[in-house]
Amino acid sequence: MLFWLTEFSDGGDAFNLFRYITFRAGGAFLTALIFGFLFGPPLINVLRKRQGKGQPIRADGPEGHFAKAGTPTMGGLLIIGALVTSTLLWARLDNPFVWMVLFVTISYAAIGFADDYAKVSKQNTAGVSGKVRLLLGFVIAGIAGFWAAAYHPEDLSYRVAFPIFKDTLVYLGYFFVPFAMIVIVGAANAVNLTDGLDGLAIMPVMIATSTLGVIAYAVGRVDFTEYLDVHYVPGTGEILIFAAGVVGGGLGFLWYNAPPAAVFMGDTGSLALGGALGAIAVATKHEVVLAIVGGLFVVEALSVIIQVLYFKRTGKRVFLMAPIHHHYEKKGWAEPTIVIRFWIISLILAIIGLATLKVR
């Protein structure tokens, strides 16, 4: 919205600053951060009053989690509110990729909200049917896949790019849409599975989003893409502003989610943020790099898949409990130890993901 102030610029005044994506990204970060600090306490108070007993705790979960009974959920509303407000305020609203990412984020937040509401109102961990969630998620992701392909350059549309191999593009045709659906839905559910300890999911999300935001900025500039020898995707630079909103809103949320958490993110936040990661990856043609940058989420999801498949086949478990962060809880690791070590792993993977921009 504020980008339109450039119409009053003669090129040498303060209004000219709004032409720069980096300046507006900084503004988006600060806006989202302030939003989080301002609206965090009243939102938590409302959630606590409305939810009563808070998020239901799994009876078969780690024993330490029973102490968290009564903690309200749906804290993802704070992050979503912060990032949507900051994006609408600072991004160019004529950019199709900004709207695509917002569409996925808000839609997945709605699915997560419905699931959280069902859990809190019924006081059980079932929530909305998994099949319904997946169906809605795939429909939204399918729309996003077509949306992205329609605005990609002709030489990139309906194709998948691979890191390191600079000239490798695989044409999928309309199969690109199912591929994009798997990326977005997979990312959403992987982040959702990771959200099991205080502060565990939000920091890796911020790290991954920051990394993808930098990638989006790079592939959206001709000079950067020529220097790095990566594919140029016009318009994706504006996604950096959305990413900055996620980081600002995420830090505001983490202030209240730090152990012991005053509020949980809930599916409202985890599904939305995971879906956003997938949508950014699809928009920037870095779907494969997402698997590296978001490697922690991949491992969390794989641990559940392996556990379920192995148990069905043998009746035995590979992990003491899945997702894998619960396995380490069962082994006696302290919750802060697990969280911080997983943050470190996320940072290492993000650096490796960024390195793919230059290693060609």
UniProtKB/TrEMBL annotation:
Enzyme class: transferase
Superkingdom of the organism of origin: Bacteria
Membrane recorded as keyword: yes
Binding site for Mg(2+): N192, D267
InterPro entries documented for this protein: Glycosyl_transferase_4, PNAcMuramoyl-5peptid_Trfase, PNAcMuramoyl-5peptid_Trfase_CS
Subcellular compartments: Cell membrane; Membrane
Associated pathway: Cell wall biogenesis; peptidoglycan biosynthesis
GO cellular component, one term: plasma membrane
Xref: PROSITE patterns: MRAY_1 (PS01347), MRAY_2 (PS01348)
Entry's transmembrane regions: 20-44, 65-91, 97-114, 134-151, 171-193, 200-219, 239-256, 263-282, 288-311, 338-357
Keywords from the UniProt entry: Cell cycle, Cell division, Cell membrane, Cell shape, Cell wall biogenesis/degradation, Magnesium, Membrane, Metal-binding, Peptidoglycan synthesis, Transferase, Transmembrane, Transmembrane helix
Catalyzed chemical reaction(s): UDP-N-acetyl-alpha-D-muramoyl-L-alanyl-gamma-D-glutamyl-meso-2,6-diaminopimeloyl-D-alanyl-D-alanine + di-trans,octa-cis-undecaprenyl phosphate = di-trans,octa-cis-undecaprenyl diphospho-N-acetyl-alpha-D-muramoyl-L-alanyl-D-glutamyl-meso-2,6-diaminopimeloyl-D-alanyl-D-alanine + UMP
A GO biological-process term: cell wall organization
EC number(s) reported in the record: 2.7.8.13
Topology in membrane: Multi-pass membrane protein
GO MF annotation terms: metal ion binding; phospho-N-acetylmuramoyl-pentapeptide-transferase activity; UDP-N-acetylmuramoyl-L-alanyl-D-glutamyl-meso-2,6-diaminopimelyl-D-alanyl-D-alanine:undecaprenyl-phosphate transferase activity
Cofactor: Mg(2+)
Database matches in PANTHER family: PHOSPHO-N-ACETYLMURAMOYL-PENTAPEPTIDE-TRANSFERASE, PHOSPHO-N-ACETYLMURAMOYL-PENTAPEPTIDE-TRANSFERASE HOMOLOG
Functional summary from the UniProt entry: Catalyzes the initial step of the lipid cycle reactions in the biosynthesis of the cell wall peptidoglycan: transfers peptidoglycan precursor phospho-MurNAc-pentapeptide from UDP-MurNAc-pentapeptide onto the lipid carrier undecaprenyl phosphate, yielding undecaprenyl-pyrophosphoryl-MurNAc-pentapeptide, known as lipid I.
Family to which the UniProt record says this protein belongs: Belongs to the glycosyltransferase 4 family. MraY subfamily.
The protein's name in its UniProt record: Phospho-N-acetylmuramoyl-pentapeptide-transferase
Gene coding for it: mraY
